[in-house]
Design brief:
Elements lengths: L7 E5 L5 E9 L2 E8 L2 H16 L16 H13 L7 E3 L3 E7 L2 E6 L3 H5 L3 E4 L2 E6 L2 E4 L16 E3 L12 E3 L6 E6 L2 E9 L3 E7 L2 H17 L16 H10 L4 H4 L5
Antiparallel strand pairs: 1-2, 2-3, 4-5, 5-6, 7-8, 8-9, 10-11, 12-13, 13-14
Length: 265
């Protein structure tokens, strides 16, 4: 039987074709480096990984596209070398925050309080949105900030320092917290416009407070359901307001005729 190169282990796929796995042990941690069609490629990955872990000067900027190691694995190894902890996701920890890398110049910055969450969940990107698999569900990472899937940057939320890669909590400001509610400037002051979608957007009204606007949206949902609109609207959940106050506001809030008198065709 042919002896394998150091760090290389032969394996067989379900279709009975052979491939080769590369791995190494560092600080008593066994690390899988990837799978390869050729034993020599797996061996080169093993050698490169050992070199990265031994050379304190090697950095993320040294990564080349033709490397036998994936960039994700490169990040994992450098973080283990420098910070003494191995994560299976491409995280590099700094004293007060951490990076989650996709490419050398493509990354997010997160608060350390999110470290465990992203150390155990891989971020996937699709259609301009970022998701993680969380208990079998795809969860938009913006939901951790109270931002809805349909929210628009600049209208519903903004990055305080202008950097959309900086996902630290202090850098994300929620402009519109509630479904159907949009802050607008009128006559030098902020008011809150409400719209609800049936076949197109219907104007619900414009209100002095965000709370009134959020309740107006809920009232519009109820009116449309009574009119026969069969649509799964998500009502606004109101925190810090008693049922009695909610009921008084609900009764007093005026709704635009287009919603109040809506009839299904």
């Amino acid at each position: 039987m042919k002896r394998q190169l150091p760090g290389v282990y032969a394996a067989v796929r379900k279709d009975q074709t052979q491939y080769f796995r590369a791995s190494l042990t560092y600080r008593a941690k066994h690390i899988s480096l990837g799978s390869y069609d050729r034993a020599e490629d797996a061996h080169q990955a093993y050698l490169l990984a050992g070199s990265l872990l031994a050379d304190a000067s090697a950095s993320l900027n040294d990564y080349l596209p033709d490397s036998p190691l994936s960039f994700e694995k490169w990040v994992c190894l450098l973080n283990f070398r420098d910070n003494g902890i191995y994560f299976s996701t491409p995280i590099y920890v700094r004293p007060k925050f951490f990076y989650y890398y996709f490419a050398p110049s493509d990354f997010f910055i997160f608060d350390l309080e999110d470290l465990f969450y992203y150390a155990t969940r891989k971020i996937s990107r699709r259609g301009g949105h970022c998701f993680v698999a969380d208990y079998g569900m795809q969860v938009n990472i913006m939901s951790r900030y109270g931002i809805k899937n349909y929210a628009v940057e600049g209208r519903d939320f903004r990055f305080v320092n202008g950097n959309s890669q900086d996902m630290r909590y202090e850098n994300i400001e929620i402009i519109n917290r509630y479904n159907g509610v949009f802050a607008v400037r009128e006559m030098g002051r902020t008011r809150y416009r409400v719209r609800i979608h049936v076949k197109g957007n219907l104007n619900v009204g414009t209100y002095d407070s965000e709370t009134e606007a959020a309740i107006a949206y809920n009232k519009a949902i109820d009116l449309l359901k009574k009119a026969g609109v069969d649509k799964a609207y998500a009502p606004n959940y109101m925190e810090g307001i008693s049922p009695a106050v909610y009921a008084d506001l609900y009764a007093s809030i005026d709704i635009a005729p287009g919603v109040r008198n809506y009839r299904c065709e």
